[in-house]
Amino acid sequence: MSKLLIVGTVAFDAIETPFGKTDKILGGAGTYIGLSASQFDIESAVVSAVGEDFPQEYLDLMSERNIDISGIEVVKGGKTFFWSGKYHNDLNSRDTLDTQLNVLADFQPVVPENFKSPDIVMLGNLHPLVQLSVLEQLERPKLVVLDTMNFWMDNTWEDLMKVISKVDALTINDEEARQLTGEYSLVKAARKIADMGPKYVVIKKGEHGALLFNNDRIFFAPALPLEEVFDPTGAGDTFAGGFTGYLAHTEDISFSNMKNAVIYGSNLASFCVEKFGTERMQTLTKEEVHQRLEDFKALTQFQIKLT
Amino acid sequence: MSKLLIVGTVAFDAIETPFGKTDKILGGAGTYIGLSASQFDIESAVVSAVGEDFPQEYLDLMSERNIDISGIEVVKGGKTFFWSGKYHNDLNSRDTLDTQLNVLADFQPVVPENFKSPDIVMLGNLHPLVQLSVLEQLERPKLVVLDTMNFWMDNTWEDLMKVISKVDALTINDEEARQLTGEYSLVKAARKIADMGPKYVVIKKGEHGALLFNNDRIFFAPALPLEEVFDPTGAGDTFAGGFTGYLAHTEDISFSNMKNAVIYGSNLASFCVEKFGTERMQTLTKEEVHQRLEDFKALTQFQIKLT
Q1: Considering CB atoms only, which of A209, A226, A259 is closest to B302?
Q2: Can you give the CATH number for the domain in which A115 is found?
Q3: Would you say residue B306 lies in a domain?
Q4: B293, A304: Cβ pair inside 8 Å?
Q5: Could you tell me if residue B305 is inside a domain?
Q6: CA distance B31 to B48
């Protein structure tokens, strides 16, 4: 069974959307990636840190889904990373109201012994130096995928460039790809990112789907058109978890299988946004995912007659 | 051979994009639809009006592509419809600088005798009463497709509702679909539009592709990711010409063939935006279109393994 090592925040989120508002709920890139990847028959582990205020039931929730949590350090006397944000009416943009790094401010990650030779690594949103430190503890995996955010471009540019140069694939949203490269055209942006290191570039466009680039090849996975997006939080991380989880499960990192992986990522993300936070991902079954794959086929596959 | 009747402006455009600026050049919905549909082995005719200032070479250009121009009235002493616009840096939005209806202000369309029983009708952008008048001159075609713009929603709402209630399909862009229905979700907007009459709804999202709706079925055609969009003018009309031209050519208006038709529309539109105005469409060959279809397949088709 393939091993997927996940790095990312495990956190509290407080979210406000046009549909409602939550108190502190379970969130964080590592959490969403882990829950998403747990849809596949793989071994996965999350490396992160939380404070003493983090409820045991949240950790149990991950354990019950066969996610190895021995790499999640519980810091004595520490407080868990907290993010709060408010979405605008169109749900395509949001304001960050508060970010408290807390125990992640000076986090020294320790990769569990049994995950030091993972097949695939998913470096989710966290300080680039934490991502680098994890890579340095590993034997070279078959595939290293990085996700990052504008925050690290603004504050830790050089560290970010270092980690980008060491990974095989980058997943990033469209606005961030433009910020990273100074290119408006996503085709040009993807080429510039490839020049920084990653052979594979996935640009996530939210409700407009995701583009996968490799050399001159491009593949496009649409987002499923939904009646209502309830809460977009975690959709990008859920996508990344689906992408890497599928690749780990199928043990095939060819470009043609990466096409399937972005479809799977898009599929899982389409569930994530149906409820607040991780709620939908906690109840999601393999049967529901398979059924929605049929929707993705109907949405995109055609048999054209030449004219 | 199937007959496609096209209604729409034949006009002068003056366009400014970040890449340059044109004087008065050939433009208009009817022109773009006609040029696009001329890629197919069908009989087509354009119904419109121009002024005496309209160059004969523009009319010849259409005739040479086997477009019947006997329904384009040349109004003595009249001036041709003129539109000028300036695109913003992202090319996704534009300001209209000038609109002069001129001969189209009180245009009474006359459908040529040999096009009074067309197989398919494409009612491109024009006053809803002109679109209605054309329909009233026809034996019921197999398929009537309507395109419209925010201008007619703002100024001729009731007439627009009348023509919408009489057509089989509506092609409309995303912002206009939202304006027409008051729904932000395009899935909900499409359903509301279907309640107004059209069984088929195509929502054009520019660089983000196009969605085809029919009852609970949805199909998505991506836009081809391009390094540079040079001039988006006419892309939506070119899409409509490809959509209806393909349906006329294949003589098959089933939903599964409409999937192919939106792919063809998206394919042709991807050429249109490569140069200013109609320039690219004038030189486009069938071989180029067929080759780009392969790009669309590579971009969207996948063979998924279930997990």
Answers
A1: A259
A2: 3.40.1190.20
A3: no
A4: yes
A5: no
A6: 9
